[in-house]
Specification:
48% of the residues lie in helices and 11% in strands. Helix 1 packs antiparallel against helix 21 and helix 6 runs parallel beside helix 7. The protein starts with a helix and ends with a helix. The site of flavin mononucleotide has 29 residues, from strand 3, strand 4, strand 11 and helix 13.
Amino acid sequence: MQNFAKYLQNFKKTYYLTKELFLKEKLASDTIGIVPTILPEDLGSTDFKQAYCLKYAYMGGSMANEISSAEMVISMGKAGILCSYGAGGVSPKIIEKAIIDIQKELPNGPYCFNLIHSPYETAAEMNAVKLYLKYNIDIIEASAYINLTPSLVYYRASGLSRDKNGNIIIKNKVIAKVSRTKIAQRFMEPPSKKFVKKLLEEGLITQEQADLVMQVPIADSITIEADSGGHTDNRPLISIYTVIKNLRDQLHEKYNLKDKIHIGVAGGISTPHSALAAFSMGADYVVTGSINQSCIEAGTSEHVKNLLQSVLVSDVAMAPAADMFEMGVRVQVLKKGSLYAVRAQKLYDLYIRYDSINDIPKNEKLKVEKQFFGKTMEAVWQETVAFFKERDPAKLEKVGDSEKQKMALIFRWYLGLSPLWARKADKEHKSDYQIWCGPSMGAFNDWVKNTDLALAENRKVVDIAERLMVGVAVLYRENILKCFFK
Ligand SMILES: Cc1cc2nc3c(=O)[nH]c(=O)nc-3n(C[C@H](O)[C@H](O)[C@H](O)COP(=O)(O)O)c2cc1C
């Protein structure tokens, strides 16, 4: 009883303790009543931690354009935390360099790489898969999928074999991030026969791999993404968790699967309370994103990190996404300190209303050119043509004479460059920074206010991960104790 009082008294303090202090305080090692110790590494699924050789059931999610940088992946990997390199939007040469750097520092892992789907960039997806296979990258975080693709099935199938007892060995592991039940289902089943046939015909996989891939699900782990930074359907975690977990259980039975697919959660995880909620629901692991962007290791500008450190929960907004602009797909961004959300929405409205840039009323066109682009639409088009001539000439051929598609590419120039302006803190485009961020950033800032972590310059990804997990362990135990000591 006395211990419990001490426990609660120290609770607030413990909240911000580093793991060493947590252990020194002996809060972790004292058994109180019948409630044994709970350590940060006890949280989540043991199977998940073993499958990926991790210390914690905690993962750093991919952040495009190397915001989840090689440095971030290495720091987390050295602490036994899985982090996914943000390969989206990065050229194959730079991804290759990151692979070499990460493998040198983490010869035995853990690390993983993002395989991001874009319906307009199918060649880039296949190139990324080939690169990952060449370097034996055996864990990927697959995201933004609407349907499965041959590239993804190729990655999965080419790592399949049998051991001498006939058991299926899965070398290439897939952690799929989804927010919709239908897409979750595609990842939790074997792939469609048509993809497998195509891969076989192209000689990319063997007959044995073609047979084996029809006997396993595409993913080993499913991260359910709720209201997060970046691509999100803004779904409440407490609702979608139950539905996707139940679906996992049904499919496990239907396909008589050997291993249970892990279910993790992302979107809104940034404080001990939110992570506790996830683990209490039964999540096998938690994934963070927004909070890591404000850390020292993040591949973005000091300006962005300083903006992020003062964000409130309400300082975010949904805005059109660059990669699937024409389809009306949206991303969650920071609205404080940037006009991106408003301006990108304006461009989308113009795209919907008009068939050509020549149809846009003169005053509106001038406003966009002067305030958003800083140059004429014709100049942007010339830049776009030069860019695609070098990178993807087929895209220009596809546009052909379509004025509507030309307009989309001109507007996507703004949407595509705005994250890079933010990363470089480009002064010319100060009002247009596209910074992906979820409400979790504001919750984190509130949790750490009046502590050393209030300043972005003190934020390190591993320290934050450990303090968060320590906080969960403390809260978890407090909740159990509350049941015994009234
Ligand atoms: C700046 C930023 C960039 C992101 N880029 C990607 C990406 O390229 N691929 C991906 O799978 N997820 C991406 N995400 C999502 C994160 O990996 C993670 O799932 C999400 O941020 C978790 O929710 P939270 O923002 O509430 O922490 C990004 C998130 C942020 C904040």
